[in-house]
Amino acid sequence: MNQESQTRLDGYIAKVKERSQNFIGYPVSTDFDYSELYPLLKYPLNNLGDPLIESTYDLNSRSIEREVVEFFCDLFKAPKENSWGYVTNGGSEGNLYALYVARELYPHGMVYYSESTHYSINKNIHLLNMPSIVIRCDEKGEMDYEDLKDAIHLHRHQPAIIIANIGTTMTEAKDDIGKIREVLKKSAIRSYYIHCDGALAGTYLSLLETTPKFDFPSGADSVAISGHKFIGSPIPCGVVVVKKSYKERIGQSIPYIGTLDTTITGSRNGHSPVFLWYAIKN
Questions:
Q1: In contact, 145 and 151? CB cutoff 8 Å
Q2: Alpha-carbon dihedral of residues 80, 200, 212, 145, nearest 10 degrees?
Q3: Residue 266 is part of a domain; what is its CATH number?
Q4: Residue 90 falls within a domain, yes or no?
Q5: Residue whose C-alpha is closest to residue 50's, from 266, 240, 274, 237
Q6: Domain count, the chain
Q7: In a domain? residue 179
Q8: Do 156 and 135 contact (CB within 8 A), yes or no?
Q9: Which domain holds residue 161?
Q10: Is 27 within the bounds of a domain?
Q11: Per-10-residue mean pLDDT for the chain, 282 residues long?
């Protein structure tokens, strides 16, 4: 590297160190030390394809990723014989995956989400070309269940795909799955899908004795969290957990990689699962 480039790099590193000392506001954790894992940065770890199925690319962290997914399946009480998940690039990808699965399950479904929902939902709905209705919120940012009832009643002929916020971006408001299911029951909606976006709050709320619950026994069909927020990671990441029977609707066999293509991206970062695993084990 020439002197000009070295000076540029040194200046950038110094600026990052300075900013990290005064970093507050954006919801990410910086309280971590992964120095023991630094030797792995020498290697191109790639978890392409399904985490449960080995591939022709042997330099991966699949076995560790499976342990991370199993941890979150247990945390969210996903059904033992019918659960699956993977480490994503963040909560937005987890939300995209859940909507993708829901669309394949209910091609003519209507998506309902509140005005306090993360911007990734609207973007993902646009990418997937799904019809949607925005539901009003109360002053705290929680979904207005009367407005949800009115909207669903107008579209009773369509399956309902509902995004429940488990901690909104600005107020950490939490939507009540129990009340959502009651609305669905009163509207006689039998075909529905509930996704819980727990980007920041989902992990720690599951560790607390809080009510109402948002796990799988409570009615969730999928849950997504961000790994770099509450847990902390130098690389943005997340986890999505879904029912395995739903995931199997979208898998395709790709011969040259020797595994199933069941995730959003092809090549997937193999380092993030190790960071999450290290944090969980410590």
A1: no
A2: -110
A3: 3.40.640.10
A4: yes
A5: 266
A6: 1
A7: yes
A8: no
A9: 60-281
A10: no
A11: 93 92 78 94 95 90 97 95 95 96 96 96 97 96 97 96 94 94 96 95 86 91 94 94 89 74 91 97 92
